[in-house]
Write a structure and sequence with these properties.
The protein is an alpha/beta fold and 365 residues long. Helix content is 41%, strand content 19%. The chain is built from 15 helices and 12 strands. The longest helix has 26 residues, at 122-147. The two termini are 21 Å apart.
Length: 365
């Protein structure tokens, strides 16, 4: 099960620099001119989780396999993208394919790095992209409403549902609100997702600050924080330049560098965790002598569905899940002692997996 986060923003805000650091590569060309990233670059990164290493140490696992998240570096957007300006059509097509948006905002002053709008105003930049996405959604909805008119008149239940949801989205968009502000009932959730509206994607604002401001942020990032809070969205403060430098260092050197900069941890770790939280994802573990592995699931996933993340046959033939809570596994010293202490539970098909559960699945082949 893959989860994709698209890195978006106006040209020259630090998207490709951030992507380079995230993927520990220089695959994305970071240059001081618009559209240097023409094709979306895709990279997988490990989700930082100290629990996995601790479990592996207790079980003496030979291999440690972390959970992964996919980041997509998408070409820079400009005003008018909803009408095809710049690389707008390509941008909009690429953003439909991701689960969430990491919106990089320039929160640094640097005369050597041009701004496509000729000024540094992260809130205005955020509004520019949000407006383009809303305009694209309006155009998409209006076209689709025309195309399903005949089916609606014929009483097609699916078309009637789609029309109702599209009109609810259109009402919000025309009032200047993104589609994610529309409240959708559980029975409409699947049909709502199928609309693939750009402004239903959850947003994480990434404030790209200068090196000296990486620890505390600055006045510009504070404005973004206030905007995010008002919208009910999240934000993180990060220096893409610092993160790219850190990504080229060995772990011990990186730790020393962070300490010198007054940083408790790499900003990328906070960014990845924030993305995980934004998508409402959780982690469960499988642990043994061969390997300790982290698996990603949406919050609220049942045991059979969680088993299916490993292999479809596990879900089809699911019998039960043997479950040990992370704290019990660590405190008691492993699977054997936890079992002896009565902390291993047998859970059935209705069990909702908890974050940190150590699981072993039994299934019919």
């Amino acid at each position: 099960m893959g989860f994709k986060m698209g890195i978006v923003g106006l040209p020259n805000v630090g998207k490709s620099t951030l992507f380079n650091a995230l993927t520990r590569t220089a695959a994305a060309q970071a240059a001081n001119f618009p559209f240097c990233t023409i094709e979306p670059n895709v990279g997988e990164v490990a989700v930082p989780d100290s629990r996995l290493d601790r479990l592996a140490g207790i079980a003496k696992s030979k291999q440690v396999i972390p959970a992964r998240m996919t980041f997509v570096d998408i070409a820079g957007l400009v005003k008018g993208a909803s009408k095809g300006e710049g690389l707008g059509n390509q941008f909009l097509a690429n953003i439909r394919e991701v689960d969430a948006i990491a919106h990089v905002l320039r929160c640094f002053e640097d005369d050597d790095v041009t701004h496509v709008e000729g000024r540094v105003d992260p809130v205005a930049d955020a509004e520019t992209i949000e407006t383009e996405l809303m305009l694209a959604d309006i155009e998409s909805i209006e076209k689709r409403l025309q195309n399903i008119t005949r089916k609606v008149r014929g009483g097609d239940k699916e078309a009637v549902q789609q029309e109702r949801l599209m009109r609810a989205a259109l009402e919000a968009l025309e009032a200047g609100r993104p589609a994610r502000t529309v409240e959708v009932d559980a029975e409409d959730a699947k049909a709502w997702r199928m609309l693939q509206l750009l402004t239903t994607k959850p947003v994480l604002y990434v404030c790209n600050v200068g090196e000296a401001e990486a620890a505390e942020g600055n006045a510009l990032s504070q404005k973004v924080a206030e905007m995010a809070a008002a919208q009910g969205n999240s934000h993180v403060v990060i220096s893409a330049q610092i993160e790219e430098e850190i990504s080229q260092l060995e772990p011990e050197e990186a730790a020393m560098f962070l300490e010198e900069m007054g940083l408790k941890e790499a900003g990328l770790d906070r960014l990845i965790r924030a993305g995980y939280d934004l998508l409402r994802l959780e982690t469960y573990f499988t642990v043994g002598p061969k390997e300790a592995r982290a698996w990603t699931i949406p919050t609220g996933t049942t045991a059979p569905k969680a088993a299916g993340v490993i292999h479809g046959d596990f879900e089809k033939g699911f019998i039960r899940a043997e479950t040990i809570a992370y704290d019990d596994f660590v405190t008691l010293g492993g699977e054997g002692p936890a079992k002896e202490a009565g902390k291993m539970r047998a859970e059935g098909k209705s069990y909702t997996v908890k974050d940190g559960d150590v699981l072993h699945f039994l299934f019919n082949t």
